[in-house]
Design brief:
It contains ten helices and 17 strands. With 411 residues, it is α+β, with helices and mostly antiparallel strands.
Length: 411
């Protein structure tokens, strides 16, 4: 629990009328949660003084704004919705995954609230509306043609303009067989599309692999604690046929944890950090390979896209940063943080990114993403249009793999 002590935040509104005592107390009461939000950043870091001082300077202006609204707006203002909007805006400005939670959401989280056993198969982040980051293979969303970059404008008629990714993810989950209606915007389409999807439990399929023109091609469907083992098995089976080099398809694969990514990276990286985690204090906490790691030494090409996020992005960073793979495709979105719930005194909460992962060279993944070694865009497909018959990006990856200019061999 974070508590804000008493204090005065500003000198009143800058016009000829004075602020009444009642208004001052009202402003103090409704800005207390904002004081806490500003303080949270300092409390979890090592050097809070400068950020806190800047925050309190802004709060003086914020007090003046609230005073003007409560006294001079043309109609009497219901202050709670105004303050909720201000709080949401503050959290939304941090990154695509931080969120300001209602007391009901905090209570549900405290009670061990979990997502429903079924979903539609998308990973989302906030970008004006809710943006589709990844789409799980074979899911209801994939079959309906949803793609990375689509915007969900409404869920069951509720606009997402002020909806966090935290809340949207929970609205999209539910019981298997239940339905959810989405209003979807695609930048290449003139009009939004309404799509009704039936929720399904995720498939047990984690990795599939095949031999293609002498190369081993492995498709990761999702990252879980079992993905590393499935990847090792599928690649091992293809190696018995003489297939080499290796192409791993991570396009539009989002979700999963850093532990899932690190377990998979251990298959390929023998030397150098697998992942480095850091918090507000900036102290790096690297995860080094173990003596038995790096058993797979064949050349590797990774296919990545703007939907390669979370565990897949951390995995790709480990291989690219240790010269174990060449990346072909699009820049990744930079979603490699860890979130935690911070409870506020009024019952609300802040779901906030408190840790992030770095590339092996020490630069951030979160908020920055990875740049491909061989840039190539995904095709633009309109609603109702079939995807191209040939996979140009995979063909390019095969060319790179055959050229020998790949991350190869032990380091």
């Amino acid at each position: 629990m974070f508590e804000a002590g008493p204090g005065r935040f500003g000198a009143g509104i800058a016009h000829n009328e004075t602020v009444t005592v009642r208004s001052r107390w009202l402003v103090f009461a409704i800005t207390t949660p904002l004081v806490v939000l500003v303080a949270v950043g300092g409390l979890i870091g090592a050097s809070p003084d400068a950020p806190l001082q800047r925050g309190f300077a802004h709060l003086r202006v914020f007090q003046d704004v609230i005073s003007l609204i409560t006294q001079a707006y043309v109609e009497e203002v219901q202050i709670d919705p105004v303050m909720d909007g201000a709080m949401r805006g503050l959290a939304d400005s941090l990154d695509a995954e931080s969120a300001y939670l209602t007391p009901a959401e905090v209570k549900a989280a405290d009670g061990g609230d979990s997502l429903g056993p079924a979903d539609i198969g998308v990973t989302i982040a906030r970008q004006f509306y809710l943006r589709v980051v990844g789409v799980r293979d074979g899911s209801p969303a994939a079959r309906a043609g949803l793609r990375t970059g689509d915007f969900i404008r409404a869920i069951d008629g509720t606009p997402t303009r002020d909806m966090s990714a935290y809340r949207g993810t929970r609205r999209l989950a539910g019981q298997a067989g239940s339905t959810v209606e989405l209003l979807v915007i695609r930048t290449s389409a003139a009009d939004p599309h309404t799509i009704t999807l039936t929720r399904e439990a995720p498939s047990d399929r984690l990795v599939t692999a095949r031999r293609l023109d002498g190369a081993a091609v492995a498709r990761v469907h999702r990252f879980t604690p079992g993905t590393a083992g499935a990847l090792a098995t599928e690649i091992g089976n293809l190696r018995l046929t003489g297939a080499t080099p290796l192409i791993i398809d991570l396009r539009n694969v989002a979700g999963g944890t850093a532990d899932d990514a690190i377990a998979a990276a251990r298959l390929f990286v023998k030397y150098g950090p697998l992942a480095t985690r850091t918090e507000r204090d900036g102290v790096p906490h690297p995860t080094a390979p173990e003596a038995t790691d790096g058993g797979l030494t064949m050349p590797v090409v990774l296919l990545v896209s703007n939907g390669t996020a979370h565990a897949a992005e951390i995995f790709a960073a480990a291989l690219q940063g240790n010269d174990r793979a060449t990346l072909v495709g699009e820049p990744t979105p930079g979603l490699a943080g860890e979130q935690q719930l911070f409870r506020l005194p009024d019952g609300h909460g802040l779901w906030m990114t408190y840790a992030q992962y770095l590339k092996p060279d020490g630069t951030p993944i979160h908020g920055a993403g990875l740049d491909p070694d061989v840039p190539m865009g995904m095709p633009v497909v309109d609603f109702g249009e079939a995807p191209p018959a040939t996979d140009a990006m995979l063909d390019r990856a095969l060319e790179v793999a055959r050229s020998g200019k790949t991350g190869a061999g032990e380091r």
